[in-house]
TrEMBL record:
Gene3D superfamilies in UniProt: Tetratricopeptide repeat domain, Zinc/RING finger domain, C3HC4 (zinc finger)
Gene Ontology terms, MF aspect: ubiquitin protein ligase activity; zinc ion binding
Protein's GO biological process: protein ubiquitination
Lineage top rank: taxon: Eukaryota
RING-type domain ranges (all copies): 59-93
Record key words, sorted: Metal-binding, Zinc, Zinc-finger
Gene Ontology annotations for the cellular component aspect, listed alphabetically: cytoplasm
InterPro entries, per database record: TPR-like_helical_dom_sf, Znf_RING, Znf_RING/FYVE/PHD, Znf_RING_CS
Protein known as: RING-type domain-containing protein
Length: 330
């Protein structure tokens, strides 16, 4: 039997056997593929092997499940309506977008995929397996991050409905109340981002109702409850309902950790000042300072910068009585 390469009879002079070339490439990849100095290419839309996989029913812009699926004309690439409406050229191929048409057939497939998954079963998508609730929240957060608020609200609403169904069957367990309180809070954030203040307040109040059923020993629950109350107060404050704002801020005082308490005290004091209660406002700012000053943090701790900035603001309120209250993050 001849030892010649079986591809040699079709090779031209000076060319190498393609099989040997492949073997050399494989050997090269084995030797140098794991070296730290080698930077592998990454797809910005998540299709490379080093990032999570985008499923066939996902929008490559927001990376969440398609919502109000729309097709670009003439290239026919498909995205969420809210996502693609911000573009004049197709993000995938660069073609000019002449118009956008709804793709009801694809959207019905997405809706069926969501509805088929029972809340008690896991959803397998993008090479991972998640509980239905976690799956919906994950895609809602992706959509929210990409400012596709309608999509985020729709997924969170489905998740809230699932949890309400479990509450009807299993009763008000601590785990379910905690989950529903968190989801309702996220729905409130969606409504606030969409400019719907009244719906946002309703969701935050529902969140507070369920979180209040839980034991106050759970610091995570306490913090979430304090955040929801402060957000209600903020929305009431912006609507000029100062008495309601003060009530929400006051209610959150007994719930937060030290920084949250100081921020809430500052907000109550500022509201008192706007109501004309200057003495109460000064007392509130002083109480917030007394709350923060004993808090000693290491320079490496992340809360140190926030503590110092809040202290600086509080002290300025005692010297400049007319300074407005800036936005303080909880």
């Amino acid at each position: 039997m001849s030892s010649l390469c079986p591809f040699a009879n079709v090779a031209r002079a000076g060319e190498h056997c393609p099989r040997k070339i492949e073997e050399k490439q494989d050997k090269h990849e084995a030797e140098y593929g794991d070296k730290k100095g080698v930077i592998s290419p990454k797809c910005p839309f998540g299709y490379d092997s080093h990032t999570f996989k985008l499923g066939p029913l996902s929008c490559v812009i927001c990376q969440a499940l398609l919502f109000e699926s729309s097709k670009c004309i003439p290239c026919s690439h498909k995205f969420c309506k809210a996502c693609i409406s911000r573009f004049n050229d197709c993000p995938l191929c660069g073609a000019d977008i002449e118009r956008i048409e709804p793709d009801s057939e694809l959207q019905s497939i997405v809706d069926c995929f969501i509805e088929v998954g029972d809340e008690q079963k896991k959803v397998i998508y993008e090479d991972i397996s998640l509980e239905r609730g976690s799956f919906l929240v994950q895609h809602a957060m992706r959509a929210f991050r990409a400012r596709n608020f309608e999509s985020a609200k729709a997924r969170l609403t489905l998740c809230a409905d699932d949890i309400n169904g479990q509450l009807d069957r299993l009763g008000s367990t601590a785990e379910l109340c905690s989950q529903l309180g968190a989801v309702l809070g996220m729905l409130g954030d969606c409504c606030r981002a969409m400019g719907d203040s009244s719906s946002a307040v309703s969701y935050f109040e529902e969140s507070v109702k369920f979180l209040s059923k839980l034991p106050s020993k759970d610091l995570e629950v306490v913090h979430t409850l304090s955040v929801s109350l402060n957000k209600i107060g903020d929305l009431k404050y912006y609507d000029a309902d100062l008495q309601a704002a003060r009530a929400s801020y006051s209610q959150s005082l007994d719930l937060g950790v030290v920084l949250d308490v100081a921020i809430s005290l500052a907000k109550v004091a500022d509201t008192d000042r706007n109501l004309g209660n200057e003495d109460a406002a000064i007392d509130g700012f002083k109480e917030a300072i007394e709350c923060l000053e004993p808090l000693k943090l290491n320079p490496s701790e992340a809360h140190l910068e926030q503590r110092d900035s809040i202290l600086e603001f509080l002290r300025s309120q005692l010297t400049d009585k007319q300074s407005p209250l800036p936005t303080l993050s909880v």
